Structures are given as C-alpha cells and as structure tokens.
C-alpha cells in the first residue's frame, strides 16, 4: 500500500532537484565548454581574470581562517559557559543569514569609509585603507559566512558533553592542553564541515563584496564580480567559464570532504 | 585524616544542594556517600575533585588546603558514571593520558600502563578504541586511567550506575578486591544501599544536602540514627508506632500473647526463597509486612485470612516512626518484649 506513495515522493523529489539544481548547473558547464576549452583557457590567460580568481581565493581563505578561530571560540562560549545576554548573542549570530549581503556592504562602508566613516579616517591617516581594499572585502566575507562554523560546531560540542574535558582536567591537564588534546579532536569533523561550507560561501560572495570593494578591474574585482561584468558585456562564454570554475571549486570541496569523512561516526 | 571537609555549602539558584556539611574521610579506606538522587552526594564529590566550587567552607586533602585549587592541581583520580572515555584514543593512550601530561619518560609510562592494564584485566585490549569495549570494560579502563597518576584520593561518581545488574555486581566485588590491593583512599557515590553495604568500610548517608549518619555498614544497619536512615538502608514496616525490618518480626498463631499484634493474613507473596506475608491488624491501620523463609512459612501452615499474631524477634532493632512530613524520629533500641 505504501509503495506507490513512496515512489511518487521519490519521483517528485528527483524531478524537483533536477529542474532546480542539476539541470541549470549542468547548463552552465555545457555553456562553459560550448567552444571546447577556448573559453576556459581564455579566462585563465587573461591577467585581469586570473588576478580576480587569485583575489577571490586570498579573500576567501583569510575569511575562513578568521571565521574558524572565532567560530570555535564563540561555540565554546555558547555551549560551555553561562552568561547574561547569551540568548541575545545567539540570535545576533544568525543575523548574517537573514540580512541581505548588500545591506552588510553598505553598513561596513558607513563605518569604515575613509572620509565620513566612524573609524575610516583614523585608520586611513595611519595608512590603512579598509573600504575599496582587501581588508574591507575580507570583513564583508567574514560577516556573511559568520554563522556557518558556529552552527556546525555547537551541536557537536553539545553532543560530546563536557565529561571528557572534566576527566582531562582531573588527570592534570590545563585548559589549553584539554582543548588541544580532548576538545579539538572531538569536534574535528564539525569544524571541517564548517570550514568547507564557509569556504564555499566565501568564494561565492557577491553583494557585500561588490559594495565594499569598489569593483576596480585588476585590483579589487573578485571572480563573482568578473562573472557579472562579463555577462553584462555580452561575453557569455567568459561569464560561463568563470562561473563554472567557481562552481567547480565549491563542488570539489564538498566531494573531498565526503570522501575523507569516516564512513560511520563512532559514537 | 585524608579529606577534611568543613562547613561546605552549595546552592544552584534557590536549590540548596549542600547545607553546611562537615566531614572527615579517613586515609586508605573505602568510603561510600549514600543517599537518594538530588540529595547532594555527587555535588560533594565534585567539590572534593574541584569540578564544582563550593559557595562556602573549606576542603583539605592530605593536609593541603584545596579549596581554591583547580582540578588539575589536586592530584585526585575521578571516575564518571558514563566513563568519560577519550573516544579518539586507544585504551593504552587513555590510561597514559595523565602521565603524558606530567611529561614522564616514555619507558616509565609504558611500564606503568602495562602494570595498570594488567591490574584491570585489559592487557589484551590495549590497542582497541573505547567504542570497541563493553560498558564494564570501559569503566575498568576509566579506573586504570584515574589510578595511573597515583592519585592521593580516588573519587567515583556512581561508577556502576550505567551498567546492567550482573556486570554491576561483578565490578562491585572487583572494586572491593582492587581496593584491598591498592589501598588508595577511595570515596564513591551511590544511591544503591546494597552496593554501599557490600563494598564500603564506612558509609556517609546524605539527604537533602545534610549528613544523616556516618558509620560502618553494621552500625548503620543495626543502629540507624533516625527513620530516614532506617528506611533508606533496607525494607521497613510499621508495627504500632515503631519502624522495624520485616525480617525482625515473627509470626505465630498463639492469639493469647499480649505483646503481639493480632490480625489476619491479607496477602502472601513469594519472592524466590523468601515469603512476604502482609498482616492486617485487627485494630486497623497499615498492614504489617513480615518476611519468612520458605520453611518457617510451611511450618505455620498459613493461608490468606488465617488469624495470626505478629511480634518482634529478640534483638530486633526499632526506630520510632516519624509522622509524615516531620523531622527524623528519635532512634531507640528495644530488647523485644515478651520473647517466647
């Protein structure tokens, strides 16, 4: 009796995923290779596009490093300690998911721009430019990817509990030793998933970076901005090829993790 | 005295977990903290270990004031109810953890780990992960890990609570024998009075954040300080105004004996080798429970509704029953009157 129903559900899900995700992504790949490898090699040899790809990776990696360190720290704070305002902090951490990235970009410009921002003029007078430069782009990327590590690590920390940490303390380990030898190995997979999600999100960030970077060709233009620029300039082949490379990196991250993750996590 | 606790108090919000507790735990013995859940015994153990801080009072371990010391400076071994095994480390590395932290030479660590794995009968499991061990084996590993650093005191928090009945009993015997070999001052928390009576040299009964009585298992069972201790340590029934153990009562059919309570058999239950007879007193009130051996029962030839008399056996221990909700009753010792 349940069988036809089960098959109906399966077909619905498969068709839905195909129309929404698989087919469009496939078309991007197909268009990227419409002229064979011509478009791919063209963007790789174009110095401006190559610079944009390199900048994307630099900004993404920096943002991921910052988000990982702060993410693990804030997760420990949220799970292991009680303090007033904890729920407010928890709600605040989800804000980057709900606020449009373009609003994030505008907000950062308001605070850090070199002429009228709160900190901008002071920072610029000591020779440190934030807006229209890499630091601002890293900040914008950190902001939009902020909750990803935390949302992966918090449930793992909660599940592991603090008994192992207490046992380590009673055996003579200090807080740093306990973290390095007990906590970190226990949350390892949560951190790795968080890093991969953050990296994929950071490489693909568009709105906030567009506002903050100023989109200067060969200087602050990232790969996503290149895709838009090429698309608007009727360079469809270049746009699809760049988009394909971006998608490829993100998919590669997810594939690598699903291969190296332990088949069945031992409880 | 190995552990000296004076005036320790602890609250969680408005809940009083420990209320001005003072206690001396002697060196080299096995002491049980016994009481119902939520009575404060685990909190006291965790305060001794430094895993919890007391709101007031002092803790001294082997003459050193440990009140403000973090757990890693107290040199105590702690064993958790749910083992707290380091899941990503082999059994050997688990046991070696404390020694590695103390940066002992490699060959010394190896020798000590071998010695301990031998002691807890896990030598052939050294390279396994904790997930590949049974509950009882994991707990023995946790014990070896705690003992590896030669702690001043060994603290066990409901160590057998998560194990099934048979393994629990085995480990209990094993812990007793282990303690006779190792002689480290040991404190363990339990809510199982049988476990405490069987294993401990000394029992501290804790209830509602206060110590009810301290004594040897015999003291506690034979001379309970109040009705709480009496009730907690074993089965009780009420005869008149006194609490008494059901096995300290005798049944007979002599209805003329003035020292007896007369009534009728209300219910007969057989539990393995013992027979439980509930007698409804003729004067009304709660039924009196009497336990008999099978032979005693057969000799009396009782049936439901048989008229019967209940009296205290000689040397029976009674405690005045406290009215419901009031403080503990006064202990009193009675030589059973009118013994035949």
Question: How would you sum up this structure, described in words?
Answer:
The complex is a heterodimer of chains A (267) and B (340). Chain A has 13 helices and no strands. By secondary structure, chain A is mostly helical. Chain A has a single domain (36-260), classed as MetI-like fold (Orthogonal Bundle). In chain A, helix 3 (47-80) packs across helix 12, helix 6 (101-112) packs parallel to helix 11 (207-213) and helix 12 (223-232) runs antiparallel to helix 13. The two termini of chain A are 36 Å apart. In chain B, the strands form four sheets. In chain B, strands 6-7-8-3-9-10 form a six-stranded mixed β-sheet, with helices on both faces. Chain B is elongated, with a radius of gyration of 24 Å. In chain B, 43% of the residues are buried. The interface between A and B is medium-sized, with 18 and 28 residues. Chain A: The complex is composed of two ATP-binding proteins (CysA), two transmembrane proteins (CysT and CysW) and a solute-binding protein (CysP). Chain A: It is a multi-pass membrane protein. Chain A: It is found in: Membrane.
In short:
Chain A is mainly alpha-helical.
Describe the SSE topology.
The complex is a heterodimer of chains A (267) and B (340).
Chain A: H1 2-32, H2 38-45, H3 47-80, H4 86-93, H5 95-98, H6 101-112, H7 120-125, H8 134-160, H9 163-170, H10 175-204, H11 207-213, H12 223-232, H13 236-260
Chain B: E1 3-12, E2 15-25, E3 30-34, H1 41-49, E4 56-61, E5 64-65, E6 76-79, H2 91-101, H3 106-119, H4 135-148, E7 153-157, H5 165-182, E8 185-190, H6 193-199, E9 202-207, E10 210-215, H7 217-222, H8 227-233, E11 237-239, E12 242-244, E13 249-252, E14 261-271, E15 274-281, E16 288-293, H9 294-300, E17 307-312, E18 318-320, E19 331-332
Helix pairs in contact in B: 2-3, 2-4, 3-4
